[in-house]
Structures are given as C-alpha cells and as structure tokens.
Amino acid sequence: MCGLCGLGDAGAVVGGASGNGHAAIWPGNAATLLAHQGLTIADGAALFGGAATGLGSGPAAAAPAGDAGALAGADPTGFTALFDIPSGTGTPVSLGSGQRMTAEISVPGDTDWFRMSLTQGQQYEISLKALPFFGLADPQIYLFDNNGTFLVADDNSGTGLNSVLTVTATRTGIYYAGATGFGGGGQTTGQYEISLSPINAAADTVGATTSTAGSVAVGSQVLGTIDFGTDEDWYAVTVQKGQTYAVFLDAYLGTFTPLANPFLEVADRNLTTVALNDDNGVTLNSALTFTADYNGKYYIKAKGGPGNTGDFQLTVANFSPPAPASPLKGIDWGAGTEFNKTNITYYFAKQGETFANETTDSPWNAYQMQQAAAALAEFSRFSPLTFTEVSTAASADFVLTKNFADTSTTGRMFPQDPAFGTNQGVGWFNTDPDVWSLAAGGFLEKGAFGYSNFMHEFGHGLSLAHPHDNGGGTSAVFAGVTKSSDVGDDQLNQEVFTIMSYNKGWQTGFNGSSGTNAYGMARTPMAFDIALIQEKYGTNTNHNGVNNTYTLWTANGTGTGYEAIWDTGGKDTIVNPGSAGATIDLRQATLKQEPGGGGFVSAVLGVHGGYTIANGVRIENATGGSGNDTLIGNGLKNVLNGGAGKDIMLGGKGNDRYILSEATDVVSEKAKGGTDTVVTSAFSLKLKDYQQVENAKLTGSGNLDASGSKKDNVLVGNKGQNSLNGGNGDDTLKGGGGNDALNGGRGKDVLKGGGGSDSLKGGGGDDRIEGGGGNDTLTGGGNLDDFIFKKNFGADTITDFAKGTDELHLSKKLWSGDLGVKQVVNKFADVVGGEVVFDFGGHRITLDGVGSVNKLSDDLVLF
C-alpha cells in the first residue's frame, strides 16, 4: 500500500510505480513529467486558476467555476455520457468519492483534470482504465495538491497498461488528478474510465482470513463485491476427498459496476495454493478445477486484477472431467465408408492390367497370393468377415495390383468412400525387394514388413484410417500426434496397438524396434483394429473357444512378431518356454486414451514378438520360464506360475494362486484383491512376507513349514512332515500325508489333520479340531472347543477335554443303527486306566484327565 505521506510537500515520493521504463521517473522527477505535457513546475498553479490555499491548515480551496458545475447533475456512474474534459483552462471537473466517469483524450498532448475532495486518514484508490473500444492507449495518472505541487504518479500498475494509485490523505482538502496517455515517447488519444474509490476495509462484510471468510455450498453461487483494488473476498467450501470441483468467478452484469477482471485462487486448510486462474481462455472471467485431498474446508479467494473493483458472481459445482476421445475414433475412416456386407471378394490383377493408375508389372505367384489371402483371413478370426477370391475384376470388391516403384511408399488402398469413385477397393503393393519377396522365408512371412503391410492396406479397404491423419476427413487423430512418427500420448500410435500406425512393432517397449523388415512387426490386426472392425461388421464368437496355450517367441527370426489374442472361451495360458526373462501381462486392452488402451504387451526380453490381449478376452493363467519373469494378473482367478528364476508376480482383483519356486520370488497383491494363495514345494512359507495374501499351500513331499499372518489364513500341508502355525486370525489348517504339527493360534480356528499321526493344538479361541487318519493328539486350548471324529480315524487322544465346555462331534457312520447320545456313551465309552475311552471297533478316542462318563452325553453331538 502506498499513501500520500507528507501531503503538501512538493515532490514528495509516496509510492513506487511499475510498468514500462518511463513510469519509474515520475515520482522523482516532476519536471520531466510535466515536460511530457509541454508544461513546467511554474505552470502548476495556473492549471488550477490560482485558487490555492495553504494545505497544512486553514480552509479547503473553493471549487473552481466552469465545467465542474455544469456536470454536477451528470450520471455518477459515467456510463451514459462521454465527457471531453478541458485541459489547462482552470476548469477541472469534480470527481466525487465513489464516482466513475468516462471521458476522452481527444488530441495528442491533452491532459484531463479532475478535482477531488479527500478526507484526512482515508485511503483511496484512483483508477484510470482504457475503455474496451477506442480505448486510450497506455493511460497515465498523476496527482497534485491544490498548489500545483506534484505528489505521485503511476503508469501500468493496473491491468495491462492501465494505471492505479492507492493513497492515504494526510489532510482534508482539495487534490487534482491528471489523466493522459503516453506511448513510445509521444502522447496518445482515446477513451477511458476514471474512478475514485474510498477503501473501507472495516466495512467489507467478507474478509480475507479464515475467520472472516464467507461460505459457499457446492452446487450454489454467491454474489459479492471487490470494494477496493487490494480487496480479497474469501469463501469457505466444504468438500469430499477425491471429488473434483469446478469454480467460476464471473463479472456480475446485473449492476453498473461489474468486476472487470476477476482473479480466482483456491487454497487448502493450510492456506497453500492448490489452483489459480486469471482469464478462462475465452473471456476475462476466471475458472478452474481442483480435486480435494481430504474431507473438510478449502478456501476460495475472489479478487480483481490490479486496480479492479466491482461486483462478481462465484459458483462452485461438482465436476466430472469428460472422458478423452476414444482412440478408435482416430483410426475410423468414417461412417458410410465400410461395406454393408460381410463376404468380401478379391481379385489379383494380371500382368499388364491397370487399375487406379497402377499397372501390375509381373504375375502374382502362388506364394504371394497365399500370403495376401492369409492376411485377409486374419480379419476373419475376430469378425464374421469372409474373403473369397474371384476370377474377374468386375465381380471383386478388392482389386489387388503390384509393381516396383522407386519410392518410400510401400502400398495404397482405397476404402469404400464415394469420393474415390471407381478406385474404391483398389489396392497397390510396391514390390521393392526391401519389403517384398518371391518365395517363403522373406518379407511376406507373418511378423515381417510385407505381411504387416498387407493387413495395413486391407485395413484401409475395410474403412480403417491412419492414427496420424484424418483419413477421409471424418476421423480424428490420436492424442499427441502431429506427424506419423509421433507415438503420441500414452504411446498408443504404434503398430503393436494398431496395424494402421507407421511406427512398426513396439518401438517404445523394453526391446525397442527390431531394426529389420524381416521380423518384429504385427502378425495380426491388433487390439484397436479388432475393436473397430467388430464395431463395423460384428464379432466372431467361436474362435479359440477351448483351453488354449499361447507360447511366447524365444528368439528373433522368421515368423517372430506381435499378435493380439482373440479367444472366446476355455481356460487359457500364456507361457514363456525359455530361459530368458519375460513379462506376461494378462490384462486386456481397455480401448481408452490411457496406458494399456491398445493392450499390455507380453514378450521375452530381447525378442521382438509377443502378445497383447484384445478387449473382451479373458486369459486366466501365466507361466514363466527358467529366467527372471514378471507376471501380471487381471480381475479373474489367475494362476501365476513363475517357474524357475527370481520372479515377480502381481495379482489383480480375483482369487489368485501364486506358484513359487524360490524364496526370493516377489508377490504383490492389491488390497481387497480377492482371497489369494501362495503355493510352493521348494521352501517354507511365512505369509507375513506376502502382504495381502491370505493362504499358503505346500506341495510335494518335502518337510516344510507354513505360518500365517494377522489375517484369517488357510494353511495346507503336503505329503511331508509339516509344521503349520496359524497366528492371530481365524485360521484353517489342513495337514497332509506326514506326521504334522498344527497350531491354530489365538483365533477361532479349524484344524484338520491328514493321514499321519498329527499333533493338533487349537490355541486360545473357540476351535474346531479334526484329527483325520492316523493316531493323533488333539489339544483344544482355552475356550469352547469342538472335536470332530468321522469314519476311519485312528486312535486319537484329547489332552484337555473339559466336560460341560468342550464338545465331541461323532459321525453316525461309526456305528450301525439309530442311537442317541446316552446310548452311544453306554455302548462305546468306558473308563480304562482312570481315563474315558471311546472304542468304535479299533477307532479309539481317549479323553486325558476325564475319569468318569457321568453327564458325558451332554457333551456329545451326533451328525
């Protein structure tokens, strides 16, 4: 803030000025300032008709006669009249506190003078702004006392080249403001608005602190006023974490004083700015969006540009960003350019025949026709399209020509676009030996340039366009693509995602470009192509409907390339059969403008070939090789088998199984990502080492152990001797064929022994314990425990059976006939050696510490 400190002292410097170079000299060099107007310091009093009185004491100057009186009844807003204010005549116009006026500098060198009555101690803002049309270029404003003594000036402290002064009067009296234009060393002309505004911060009902802020609700709007140039109005808004909000600050046009240049800022609870905007890109109004990081209050700061005051409208609303345009739009030649049928005929032009100005210069041989037909048939895998060769061009939908051309263009084909007239369906292929072959093993093999080129041109014939241009004028362009070599936003403009791209193979992948035309390119139409062809022609719902294995390429060479899997059923697996590490990703293409929109690539390190998975395809399993693999699941019940090597396995939302070969294998599972299991035959398992994984299973015959975590776990033993420890959750422990030790821990556990002689300890919770085969030792621990005995158990001992608390659950298959609990006790229970023993024909239950069958029937449950 600047003020008129020492008002009345000639040449007093009361504030800085900003803007172009000459502005800075004004406060310190009044003589130079006046020289711009053709005046001197001595001329100052003459400007005001000599009507000067002492400013330190005594009465204020009388109002000069002239135009000031004539304008006394004018519209105080200044919007209904445009005044031409006299210059240097002793007839300044009165500008009242709170008044705005529009006027004009009509001739170069003109200065308009305004007489103002200011009150000691009051802060004021004097603003000089060009009008939108025929505006005064580079407005300047300066201030004199009523003796003609220069006080302060400004150039460019307002918005753009506009000027504004913020001053505090140190005495009550008359002051004079001069308005002029200056630019490039000369004077300018034009229309302007001048205003005198008292700054009454104490009367501002909406303050600029958290305690004085107003409030605005989401989905509503408020009206407010920026009362002076440095005023800020803060509004608290209560928001929800993760929600995005749109905030608009507009000039309110329902009054004569709309805020000319709204400025908008949003701060969090720590008053850290999270978003701001000045001009929304269309008007001077402001707009922004922000996403809340927490539940609670954010603060919206409404203000004007430098020197701007006036009325505004603030609006807050929930905001959902529009979804980006689908990449499918970027390869669509347009509606009406596809066939209205699904059986497409094709014809190989004979030597010497000319179509679309292309003459076939040599016959198509059998191998070349075979490969062209195979490339057409690729479209039949995922759609109802069929392709039939015919013997005449007149009966063909596609006419295929070829010849050698010394050009970088390798092919061309015209879609069913009426703009191409008789050329519709005509395809041409360059037989340059760098991209073409006469026999098998060359560039027309799957994965090589020529085969990929066939599919690319046939894509055009079926109404697909390039992702880097707009085809027939109706398709879009991939986001971020300005030329064919741009991979674009999210790197989607690559052949591994669409055969319509010029960027062959997977150039941004971990193997880069193959660097050869012989392999490393598309072997099939890719995920974007499949989706758009299906949109235009329909879907083949019968292809690969059984259990299929998709084996990765392990070496570069003829046939190596990229395929998009189209599979309609069965339990399917992608396999790395080799020793080099691979990434196997089971996620399908999303078809959105995002990473993975065109699919996620599965490939072996160093090999230029692999798979993506088309949208809508479900591949369940991934199997690594003997190298260090990365396996990525999807939302299904995946089996991720890393194989040998140090593998990384990332699960999805389904109930996944991770098969581990080494203790160094890494498993990463999402929270709430299903109920998952780690499986191994190679080492003991501790579930605390596998966060978000609930279950463990030991396989093989090794003597291995497994322990649970704080979660509810399922631990399963193998044929060896296992120690299974549940931990704190409500666990289920299942022994295998060996003599196992099962310890439930603190929760409500279920323990089931296997075929060996097992030791089962329930722990502190209400446990359910079943010995299984073999001669087992069962211990319930504290609380209420159930001991389960089915047919063919061995000779088991319960070490801590508590009558009246624990229960014996006995299968009725242990005897014949219909017996009740008392009959079972009477018939099968006896006291042997001071302990109760149930004997079911060799299948015995000994209750250690229980010396009487009295009331034992109360603890029996028959099932």
UniProtKB/TrEMBL annotation:
<keyword id="KW-0964">Secreted</keyword>
<dbReference type="GO" id="GO:0005509">
    <property type="term" value="F:calcium ion binding"/>
</dbReference>
<comment type="similarity">
    <text>Belongs to the peptidase M10B family.</text>
</comment>
<feature type="domain" description="Peptidase metallopeptidase">
    <location>
        <begin position="335"/>
        <end position="514"/>
    </location>
</feature>
<dbReference type="Pfam" id="PF08548">
    <property type="entry name" value="Peptidase_M10_C"/>
</dbReference>
<dbReference type="Pfam" id="PF04151">
    <property type="entry name" value="PPC"/>
</dbReference>
<dbReference type="InterPro" id="IPR001343">
    <property type="entry name" value="Hemolysn_Ca-bd"/>
</dbReference>
<dbReference type="InterPro" id="IPR024079">
    <property type="entry name" value="MetalloPept_cat_dom_sf"/>
</dbReference>
<dbReference type="InterPro" id="IPR018511">
    <property type="entry name" value="Hemolysin-typ_Ca-bd_CS"/>
</dbReference>
<dbReference type="Pfam" id="PF00353">
    <property type="entry name" value="HemolysinCabind"/>
</dbReference>
<dbReference type="InterPro" id="IPR011049">
    <property type="entry name" value="Serralysin-like_metalloprot_C"/>
</dbReference>
<dbReference type="InterPro" id="IPR007280">
    <property type="entry name" value="Peptidase_C_arc/bac"/>
</dbReference>
<keyword id="KW-0677">Repeat</keyword>
<dbReference type="InterPro" id="IPR006026">
    <property type="entry name" value="Peptidase_Metallo"/>
</dbReference>
<dbReference type="GO" id="GO:0008270">
    <property type="term" value="F:zinc ion binding"/>
</dbReference>
<feature type="compositionally biased region" description="Gly residues">
    <location>
        <begin position="752"/>
        <end position="763"/>
    </location>
</feature>
<protein>
    <recommendedName>
        <fullName>Peptidase metallopeptidase domain-containing protein</fullName>
    </recommendedName>
</protein>
<dbReference type="GO" id="GO:0005615">
    <property type="term" value="C:extracellular space"/>
</dbReference>
<feature type="region of interest" description="Disordered">
    <location>
        <begin position="709"/>
        <end position="777"/>
    </location>
</feature>
<feature type="compositionally biased region" description="Gly residues">
    <location>
        <begin position="726"/>
        <end position="739"/>
    </location>
</feature>
<dbReference type="GO" id="GO:0008237">
    <property type="term" value="F:metallopeptidase activity"/>
</dbReference>
<dbReference type="InterPro" id="IPR050557">
    <property type="entry name" value="RTX_toxin/Mannuronan_C5-epim"/>
</dbReference>
<dbReference type="GO" id="GO:0006508">
    <property type="term" value="P:proteolysis"/>
</dbReference>
<dbReference type="InterPro" id="IPR013858">
    <property type="entry name" value="Peptidase_M10B_C"/>
</dbReference>
